[in-house]
Amino acid sequence: MGITLFLMSQKGLAVLNAVIENKFTEIIDKVVVGTDKNVVNDFSKNIVQLCEKEKLSYCYRLDDYTVNTEFSIAISWRWLINLPKNKKLIVLHDSLLPKYRGFAPLVNALKNGEKFIGVTALYASKEYDRGDIIKQQKIEILYPIKIEQAILKVSALYQEIVVDLFKDLNNNKTLDPKSQDNSEATYSLWLDEQDYKIDWTKEASYIERFVNATGFPYKGAKSVLNGEWVTIVSVKQIEDVYVENRDVGKTIFLREGKPVVVCGRGLLIIQEAKYNKNNKSIFPLKSFRNRFL
């Protein structure tokens, strides 16, 4: 029994570490490594270094390779994997399917303030994320929470699920998948540059979750200050006041030199932000009157 792994991201690295720690290296036939320029760190170098350390066979996604195993497992994989009909592909997805089918499910779940986040292992299907569910794990979270923290929590669930799969497959245990309830399905859309821009007409609670959900390893929440793009790294809700003719994005107070910004509902203090052009802090601000667009 051999298993092919398709790995990318911090979650892929975490899974590989767990498989090695549980002494399943002999079962790994090959590791296919993905790279992604749309994130700050795709962890591909770390995955390759670990493969070399453990003397595991590996290749990159764009290399010529052959899948020799009956089962393959894909972690954080964004591309189509074409396998013969006699091969089985198990995909791990960052949501409690059938909710948040599609792209960037963890980011969107955090934006929406979901009480639980989780991971689903399912068989790959022609239409994305509609395959039968093999295993599922969830964890309760408290807000505020940054995406980097959420990824660590989800990575632990990935490790647990994949190690269970390795045990089951190594022991020739028959997997017992369950079909999804399509009437309960929701979909999560892909992200592009426009999706990182803050909409100050939203409630302060949503914008705080938005900033935290789009931070490292993603590109960060963006806004325009005095004609220059800035990345908002950290914000915090503070008590609202009644604002006549509520003009969102304007600074209403300065607290210890940090601007308090009017939102569609509520107020946010910007604790950390930097100019995109030089990565330098926007603080100290040159004037009190600032509008974030």
UniProtKB/TrEMBL annotation:
Protein keywords: Transferase
- GO MF entries: methionyl-tRNA formyltransferase activity
> Pfam families, alphabetically?
Formyl_trans_C (PF02911), Formyl_trans_N (PF00551)
The record's annotation in InterPro entries points to: Formyl_trans_C, Formyl_transf_N, Formyl_transf_N_sf, Formyl_transferase-like_C_sf
Gene3D superfamilies named in the record: 3.40.50.12230
Instruction: Tell me where in this chain the Formyl transferase C-terminal domain is found.
Output: 192-278
**Ranges in a coiled coil:** none
Q: Per the record's keyword annotation, is RNA-binding included, yes or no? A: no
Domain Formyl transferase N-terminal, by residue range, is 86-144
Listed PANTHER family: METHIONYL-TRNA FORMYLTRANSFERASE (PTHR11138), METHIONYL-TRNA FORMYLTRANSFERASE, MITOCHONDRIAL (PTHR11138:SF5)
- Name used for this protein in its record: Methionyl-tRNA formyltransferase
Specify the species: Hyunsoonleella jejuensis
